[in-house]
Amino acid sequence: MTEVVSIRFKNRGKAYYFDPAGLQIREGDSVIVDTANGMEIAVCSRENHPVEDTAVVHPLRRVLRIATQMDLRTEELNRQREKTAFDLCKEKIGEHQLDMKLVDVECNFEGNKTTFFFTSDGRVDFRSLVKDLASILHNRIELRQIGVRDEAKMLGGLGICGRPYCCSQFLDDFHPVSTKMAKIQSLSLNPAKISGSCGRLMCCLRYEQEAYEDLVKKVPKQGAFVETKDGYGTAVQVNLLRSTVKVRLDDDREDVLHEYKSYELAAVPGGRPKDGVEPPHVLEYVEPEAEEPAEEPVDEWAVPTMIVTPVPEEPVPAPAADEQEHTRRSRRSRSRRKGAKPAAGDAAPIVVPVKEESVRSKNASDAGRKSHSKKKPSQHAEQGAPRKSADSAPAADIKPQKVTVQPVSGGEGQAEKKHKPRRRYYHGKKSSGKPSSNS
Q: Which of 267, 301, 335 is the endpoint of a domain?
């Protein structure tokens, strides 16, 4: 086992192993490493970890040091020089009218070499371009032609899936991709749908290729002559992911299809036999055992269900005879204190509060009538009001009283008319309730 650290240059996807040289490097740290082109600055993508000796290419390059503030300042100046060199190179390409597309520019950490990456459909004579760039930048110039896949890897972007390009994120190398992979996976063979932004077949077509190859060995191809548990037929439609096949049986109508699992049918070698020849028996179908229902997983975040168990009510014992008799007596006493309830047909008595002043004037008028008239008091006098003379008690001692008026059978209008104060006339004048001097 060899202890190494994984180093990535300029986030180009591929990581390389370096000897940490006794340094404890954390993920994301900027480090200075020794390369074939001299010192370079890079980023640690994985901290110290052991790997097999066969996975390491000897001699193993070393990590010189962890980047300091001065190293980071030098790297920032190199990025500014790259932008200037990129604009200058595009201008010179237009002057020389070269058929090439500039992709990226890199300046090494030491600042003595500048590399230009470009794409082109054919070979390009760029010797005059190199002379012009060297005379202006005063360092070593290198032009490198790359493919369209490398161009997408350097520039980056978003694919049709909505995620960044796989080549610019984690792919170390480009693997060959063919149209056969798309055909096995039952994808559309339209180039616009299975091609990436680089114009080549998408790299993700290779991810599930091995799984599809295993499924193809278990499921017959479309159009094959198969034997099912219900008889012989032709495979019309195949679903590899679900391992199901739709079959048109020979003994059935043409518009009727039956769906079978991969273990319920088998492809007949050699295809459909000639007329009059009995097809061989190749299916060894075994009825699968009934699987026990799997236990439902317990959801730890589910809301608990509250179940209320009803408690049976205990029978209330009947009260004793003495308690029943006591209860009846208490009810009778309460009903006596409250008074008898009016019958259903009778109207309830109306209680009218009488003010103190009205009671005084009432008593005074009654006293005057007694002294100057021998007639009996009016029959319409209030039955509930006490009969007191004006001399019997002073006016200050009179307390407010309540007058209870019971309606007569004639209705509400007659009850109001009955209790209306009676007026008397003396010598054609309206009486005020007091005796006149001429009477």
A: 267
